[in-house]
Specification:
The protein is mainly α and about 160 residues long. About 60% of the residues lie in helices and about 0% in strands. The protein has a single domain, classed as Alpha Horseshoe (Serine Threonine Protein Phosphatase 5, Tetratricopeptide repeat), CATH 1.25.40. It has helices at about 1-10, 15-25, 30-35, 45-50, 55-65, 65-75, 85, 90-95, 115-120, 125-135, 135-145, 155-160. α1 (about 1-10) runs antiparallel to α2, α2 (about 15-25) packs parallel to α5 and α9 (about 115-120) runs parallel beside α12 (about 155-160). Pfam families: Ank_5 (PF13857).
């Protein structure tokens, strides 16, 4: 049953009017299990929606996941080590950055965190949103994480502006 729901949701990623009734038909206690399912690239429905810029679907998912389950969903990693924060594109990333999460500290295969990716692609508005919303102690930890090239977020930010 849950595998079928996963694929039904995946087929409706572009249509909130079809997507939302399918997700709301799932018992609240079972939503996390379905939303944590991964495709053959280990991407969740939330990752796919964020990557494609389907902000209305991202908002729908985050609104319908019980608060106690939200962190668990946000910290799911795919085979490259990406969380939904890594996959969020410029449309969804700003919205996603409002969800302060331990997933922001997760690194991909190259050691890049969500904030490395945002700075590397010049998304200074997203960096500002994170800086404004993350507590100072956590922000300090986040900014100091080096990737495999021993580059911190500051290095990434400087390399895009030089």
């Amino acid at each position: 049953m849950s595998a079928n729901v996963y694929y039904e949701l995946k087929e409706c990623l572009t249509d909130l009017k079809k997507f939302k009734p399918i997700l709301t038909s799932v018992k609240e206690s079972e939503r996390l299990a379905i939303l944590k399912q991964q495709d053959n690239s280990d991407n969740t429905i939330l990752m796919l929606a964020a990557k494609c810029g389907y902000l209305n679907i991202v908002k729908c998912i985050l609104d319908l996941v019980p608060a106690v389950d939200l962190q668990e969903l946000l910290t799911v990693q795919n085979r490259r080590g990406y969380t939904v924060f890594h996959y969020a594109n410029f449309v969804t990333r700003e919205y996603m950055s409002k969800f302060v999460s331990p997933a922001m500290l997760y690194s991909d295969q190259e050691g890049n965190t969500f904030i490395h990716c945002a700075t590397s692609f010049g998304h200074t508005d997203i960096v500002k949103c994170v800086v404004d919303s993350v507590p100072p102690a956590d922000l300090w930890k986040l900014l100091r994480i080096p990737n495999q090239q021993d580059q911190t977020t500051l290095h990434s930010l400087l390399s895009t502006t030089i």
